[in-house]
Protein 1
Amino acid sequence: MRCRYCMPEAEYVWLPRESILSFEEIDRVAGIFAGLGVSKVRLTGGEPLLRHDLPKLVALLARHAALNDLALTTNGILLGREAGRLYAAGLRRVTVSLDTLRPERMAEFARSQRHADVIAGIDAAVAAGFGSVKLNTVIIRGYNDDEIVDLLEFARGRGLEARFIEYMDVGGATGWSMDQVFSQREIVAAIAGRYGPVRPLHQSTWAPAERFALADGTVFGVIASTTAPFCRTCDRGRLTADGTFLLCLYGERGLDLRELLRLGADDTAVAAEIAALWSARTDRGAEERAELAERGVLHRIESLRADPRREMHTRGG
Ligand code: SAM
């Protein structure tokens, strides 16, 4: 897929194959993070299901008792054939990206003809027994802001939770501009316009989405990272496919864990490096972006080509 808000360019610089962490290396890093208190791992990308035999990685991660929340974000195209194996391997939560219910829109916007496969993937996840299946929808003004209610109905009809995401100026979004951002306020207003008053839900734990309920109890979420960033409560670290540990989606520099592993550092030494970096963390990338007087694209294409780790698709959305 080549979603216009993430990978709109004709050509990309890819990370060299030998730089990509093996499943065994990812598993080892996950174990070190688990030892430092991490309990949740989300596999994202890029497209995680393009990685051959992903259920094998899930099974490795599931062996760490401390990692009690394993989740996947996927475009859904290959989910139909893998959902059962992923569940059997220990995955419990799936988020599928679905920006439109109209195949022709997806063909134009994401250069993909595989809309039916995405729907089949969603249905396969439900059939496989996943207790939590969510839908991620990036709302872009003039593209799919007219489908908010239809997408909510689609989710509601299948017992899924819809999550509407504001268009973010992340690396890779080379066509971003503020006027295309359909804000949380506008999203909630569109839903309230159809269903009546919408009630905000109070959350006991941190999550990126603010959740709301309709009068009939239907719950949906909005991720307002662009107009109402939540850096103060963000507790996420990111590991790129090639082993760079980043403290923020917008972070410029990270810690090269792959080098540490391949140079023979033991787990205690790697954990010490991670802990030192994390405890000195001051990143608040989205808030800094929101404070800019003139807000344009984060990285132009030349900057992304110079370092593909700046791409959303390498650091994980
Ligand atoms: N390939 C997988 C997928 O399609 O879900 C996982 C990676 S994708 C980068 C993860 C999520 O980030 C998707 O839900 C996608 O819609 C979202 N995303 C990508 N670019 C975005 C942007 N510029 N603003 C907001 N969300 C974005």
Protein 2
Amino acid sequence: MRKPIIAGNWKMNLNAQESVALVTGLKRELAGVTDVEIAVCPPATLLTAVGSAIAGSNIALGAQNMYTQDSGAFTGEISPLMLLDAGCTYVILGHSERRQYFNETDAFINEKAKKALSHGLIPIICVGETLEQREAGITADVVSTQVKGCVAGLSADEMKKCVIAYEPVWAIGTGKTATTKQAQEVHAMIRSLLKKIFSDNVAQAVRIQYGGSVKPDNVSELMAQEDIDGALVGGASLKVDSFAKIVKFNG
Ligand code: PEP
């Protein structure tokens, strides 16, 4: 049985005061939740403040990105050791905005995933097709190439720890959600690919989140799908009310 995981990707939003107010509200609203893993992923400058604010609660800390090296002359980059030091459990890797604006490739994301795992951080590996690719009928090809590239060389144990986030690029921040059928189809395809690459045991263990305009009013239907094990939430994770409702999708 896979435990659902719902994570908020704050992207480049909120200041220290707003972020502490947000997690203070979330702690209050989500105090009794034990059947869902909850994470918030603030910008790097807020990790420590948010980490302190959620210490001892059922909300875990995640980062939005990470570099492949432990330390050294890499101006502007943040290492896995720094993320651990700030109290992170998760790190989002290969978000479509990083692929699009910072030219991140599957090979680079793969390197980051291996590094994160070697330090005990759990990677949330993002994949997803653009609108042009969906309309060209190549969604399955695109997403399988991304998954294969990003998980290449991982051991079965490492793979089991990873979370994959399927985020159709055309649904991110646009208000357009993939239909539950479209989402489930890709999730099932990713799981069968993991079975082929690793084993059925691995495929059944890996949690696959859906991301792309997830809101309180569409989360339950998405979560009811067999292969959807959680959500990566952007815009709706910036407000206590909407993120709390999403986490409590079970009612
Ligand atoms: C995201 O940033 O990963 C995302 C899914 O954003 P939104 O929920 O705003 O579409």
